[in-house]
UniProtKB/TrEMBL annotation:
A Pfam family the protein falls into: adh_short
Organism, as annotated: Deinandra increscens subsp. villosa
CDD domains found in the cross-reference section: SDR_c
Family of the protein in this entry: Belongs to the short-chain dehydrogenases/reductases (SDR) family.
Protein's name according to its UniProt entry: Uncharacterized protein
């Protein structure tokens, strides 16, 4: 069902293909979307701060990026430079702990240009009456409070840094990875905590964009539809999923993270998007337009 992008050749025309020198921190980099984003952005010339709790996986990812063949790198060749560094970060930790981890992340390359708030969990997906308070709190701590706290400590540094380098036209870009479940379009059974948290994340995006515009920090959300990852592994293996997709999805396909998602992420990192903030971008092959739930809470 996965297809490659037939327009790959036209990417030559896109200035955001080359993001040489941009420093990007990605949370939840140890698997799925976060992992793929790190790989793709490193190829475009970004330097990566990969964070998550499973540091063994982050080490594998960083080794892969740091040993990447120069030909694989679409940005300017930068032999022998460290391109990716792992920083342990539990986004559900308390403020001071997150502040300390963000401090370490900032020190790695001396600044952070872009934060991709990608870490997220669905949690168990029972009926609202069976959902435990503990599970609700876990989902909210990770998906919304964690996203806010990481953004808060990164943006405080961005704001201070920009204060000393006033010639920099943009101080930073924050990209929150939300979900189509957070839109008022389609809801799935069992998604109470997850959908509520992602909806809050979209609100957080808009309010932070409004407040931080004067500091030249842009904040946008991306709501992915269905992509292959640990979180969707069960759903992807369901019998008949391909048939459902080929009948229900307007574009009749499940895209691959690269380039379906990475192309938009690259744009939001690049200066071409300097006038774009407070937006909720939907990347789902049009699926959520129908308002028909698939099986899971995603
Ligand atoms: N895949 C999809 O189709 C889809 C659709 C809509 C939205 N999304 C969103 O995309 C994001 C990535 O999901 P995915 O599909 O790539 O799932 P995934 O493969 O399960 O990845 C989730 C990532 O989040 C990290 N994470 C979870 N809890 C964390 C915590 N407390 N602190 C730090 N990191 C934590 C995990 O790392 P550790 O366990 O190592 O910490 C992992 O790297 C999520 O926000 C999800 O809601 C995905």
């Amino acid at each position: 069902m996965e297809i490659s992008c037939p327009q790959a050749a036209t990417f030559e025309l896109e200035p955001w293909r080359d993001l040489n020198g941009m420093i990007v921190m990605v949370t939840g980099a140890s698997s799925g979307l976060g992992w793929e984003l790190c790989m793709n952005l490193a190829k475009s010339g970004c330097r990566i701060i990969a964070s998550a709790r499973r540091t063994d996986r982050l080490k594998v990812l960083c080794d892969k990026i740091n040993n990447m063949d120069v030909q694989e790198n679409e940005g300017e060749a930068r032999n022998h430079q460290v391109l990716a560094v792992a920083v342990e970060l539990d986004v559900s930790a308390d403020g001071p702990t997150i502040k300390e981890s963000v401090g370490k992340a900032w020190e790695v390359f001396g600044r952070i240009d872009v934060l991709i708030n990608n870490a997220g969990i669905t949690g168990p997906i029972p009926n609202p009456l069976d959902l435990s308070e503990e599970d609700w709190d876990k989902v909210f701590k990770t998906n919304i409070k964690g996203s806010w706290l990481v953004a808060k400590y990164v943006c405080l540094q961005m704001r201070a840094f920009n204060h000393y380098f006033v010639l920099v036209n943009q101080a930073g870009s924050v990209i929150n990875i939300s979900s189509i479940t957070g839109l008022q379009r389609t809801y799935s059974h069992g998604s109470l905590a997850y959908a509520s948290s992602k909806s809050s994340l979209n609100t957080l995006t808009k309010v932070m964009a409004m407040e931080l515009g004067k500091n030249k920090i842009r904040v946008n959300s991306i709501c992915p539809g269905l992509f292959n990852s640990e979180i969707t592994a069960g759903l992807m293996q369901k019998k008949g999923i391909e048939k459902v997709v080929s009948k229900v999805f307007p574009l009749r396909e499940i895209g691959t993270i690269d380039p379906a998602l990475t192309s938009l992420v690259r744009y939001l990192i690049h200066g071409s998007s300097y006038y774009v903030t407070g937006n909720i971008f939907i990347v789902d092959a049009g699926y959520s337009l129908l308002g028909v739930p698939l099986y899971s809470s995603l």
